[in-house]
Amino acid sequence: MALETMVRIPAGGVVLEADLTVPDSPAGVVLFAHGSGSSRQSPRNRMVAAHLRGLGFATVLADLLTSIEERVDEQTARLRFDIGLLAGRLVAAVDWLRGRDEIGALPVGLFGASTGAAAALVAAAGRPDVVAAVVSRGGRPDLADTALADVRAPTLLIVGGHDTTVLELNERAGAALPKSSELRIVPGATHLFAEPGALEQVAAWAGEWFGEHLGAARPAS
Q1: According to the model, what pLDDT value does residue 81 have?
Q2: By C-alpha distance, which of 89, 97, 209 is closest to 153?
Q3: How many structural domains does the chain have?
Q4: What CATH number does residue 35 fall under?
């Protein structure tokens, strides 16, 4: 039975709110990085997180912006593109994970969506000995810029087949990632993967990727 706890993560002078859920005997822990105006309440990321927990992974869904910052971002859409800020807070969350008794020794994966994917890649480059794998859903890895060359973690880029602009950006960015990385396309899917079965495919691929690089996953429940 999974135990869910709301936690508070100190990060560079602010405190981030997050939902930590730990199943019995977890194989690893996956930290979610949201982007483009989303939050830890994102139904898409929560669906993927639930699937990962069914495979035996602990999950952390964190808000990388404070409530005040979120209100500012709703008006300006500026902070969601501040990759340095988001990545710095994600690194702080990774460091916080390492200090948790129940999950601190587990291998760490990052799941990033939209601009959160860029933050995840910058964080992976900053913590190469801790982050073991990255999955990007409809992400903007191009915004990680020069940090792409420093990423060691095997990275799975998942893009909708009809999300043509983002697909092109992922193809370019993927060339700078480790050879162990992959680009996979969900046919017929758009940016939010709202089409029937599209998000389920994302979750399945993410589970396979983390199972391969974080540890043996359990059969899907």
Answers
A1: 85
A2: 209
A3: 1
A4: 3.40.50.1820
